[in-house]
Amino acid sequence: MQSEVDALDKRIILALFRDVRASYKSIATRLGVSHNTVRARMARLLNEKVITLAVVTDPPKVGLWVTAFIRVSVEANKIDAVGQALASRKEVSAVYHTLGDCDIICLVHFEDNAQLFKFVNGYIGQLDGVLDMHPTISCETIKGLPDRQVPFSGIEEGGYEVSQIGVAG
Fold first, then answer.
1. Are 16 and 81 part of one and the same domain?
2. SS3 state of residue 147
3. Does the pTM of the predicted model rise above 0.90?
4. Residue 40 is part of a domain; what is its CATH number?
5. Tens of pLDDT along 4-44?
6. Is 107 found in the same domain as 33?
7. Strand ranges in 18-127 using DSSP code E only, listed in sequence order
8. Cβ contacts of residue 130 below 8 Å, gap of 6+?
9. Domain check: are 81 and 24 in the same one?
């Protein structure tokens, strides 16, 4: 059973937003509670998946120059399957079921337009149930959400390829 997030939990979360690298001791001092209280609260917040820890990248700075949103129209009985298929791909940072002029929107990052073209036509276009697709390339990010997964491949970290273990949970 998940505990309710209280005012102290929210203050701890806000302290982390201000400085994600802050120690439990410095957070405790700032909030006027004990180090052990912060440690226990953090363990619970992480265990109950109220918060997660993640590495956030700036896609162009890691060679991913093309950011696109792809609107996908899908047969009604295939929406979940197509959504899961898209979510399983390392190139896809986010997948949303939507109401409106399409059924699914996904956010993707690629090194170049050729990779985007291949993904749209060679992968999404071949998925069972896909009726139509409309990719839109982003020209500039004004405010973005942190990526939950970095679409790297072939980079080793601790003996594992990043694409095998993911980066964030």
1. no
2. coil
3. no
4. 1.10.10.10
5. 888 899 889 888 888 889 999 999 999 999 999 999 999 99
6. no
7. 66-74, 92-97, 104-110
8. 72, 73, 74, 78, 82, 124
9. no
